[in-house]
């Protein structure tokens, strides 16, 4: 009888659990028993592992094989454990020395030909295993981008992996993550006119405010500029975003903030995500985490989707549930909505006012979360060319630095995150600065929720002009931005 132990990791939401795998090859009738995995995955895993070992040129042990996976607290599985199971069997059968895998963890799916395939959630699995103290972590060679400098062995197939372990060449050092590209997708200076939209975009970026573009001719181009105006992802956000994209099996190669633009025909599962049979499928709200979610022609989205956006906007996360349990995924993003004046889409709309009202009224559920509304104005042919993306991004960075200094010691990152209570206590405006809001509040033209958004924007306007506190003009300007009135 021979016994071997290997380790791997499996994904639960965005968290990875280190998994211990034991294999025993003993005398008795030929049999392959695999315990500890969900019933739905056991048969397919056995078949993949057996075919991979045979097609790698190794004899299948003609004895009783028992593999136990310690998944008592892990409802999710996928195919991440295939390589670890195969290596445990080969070590228990004496094909490879058990000592060669004693300090190595294995992550990856096996093809029937013995090839190692990329799996979702690989970056976070590497982090979890490295934190657990493993000397080396074996992964598929196709997984060329790993977070940080981690001890990784890259292999194309089982044979390649066994040869590397036999040579004991040690782990190869992966390359560092790609840096943010210097090339902008769209430069603000290249967009004709629409100075009101560009100014609103700058204020939105400086304070992290949600934005409604009403009647603008090229809202998609404006939205595409927003990630480049925002500061690059810091290390924590970059790692978290990378884990989400790995979970969705999507490439992620730079520190540019994500921009997700789902179509209005997408289902709620596409927007918010789905958990099914233990598999996690991130939706658009999570793929936009730490970045921008842009909804073009926002009134065309289903009301259930527009209403459902309120929870991630308020909490910064989305909750996915099925019979296997509940998973919380990050979903903290800036929302940009674009809406035409009427659903007919004609420039010279002749529809009844009631029809146009019903069209825009579909956004009522999100109106209290929108801080800035800008309405397209006629272009001035004599206007000077606008600032470049680089120039505006520099102003945004300076404003965010002032806000970060003021918010130091709090969990808030930007003015758009400041709670209503703090705006009335620690960040309370001078009485004179509040004068423009007195009459609209008394007359019911603005609510307390709207007042919160206005005060947040007032602080951002002060930061953009390097002022210590918002002035009366800042508050009046913020009120006009909330109303969508011409400036």
From TrEMBL:
Domain spans labelled Mg chelatase-related protein C-terminal: 387-480
User: Which keywords accompany this UniProt record?
Assistant: ATP-binding, Nucleotide-binding
Domain Magnesium chelatase ChlI-like catalytic residues, every copy:
187-376
Q: Name one GO molecular function term.
A: ATP binding
Q: Which InterPro entries match?
A: CHLI-like, Mg_chelat-rel_C, Mg_chelatse_chII-like_cat_dom, P-loop_NTPase, Ribosomal_Su5_D2-typ_SF, Ribsml_uS5_D2-typ_fold_subgr
Q: Does the keyword Nucleotide-binding apply?
A: yes
**Top-level taxon of origin:** Bacteria
Q: Name one Pfam family in it.
A: ChlI
This chain belongs to the protein called ATP-binding protein
Species annotation: Nonomuraea composti
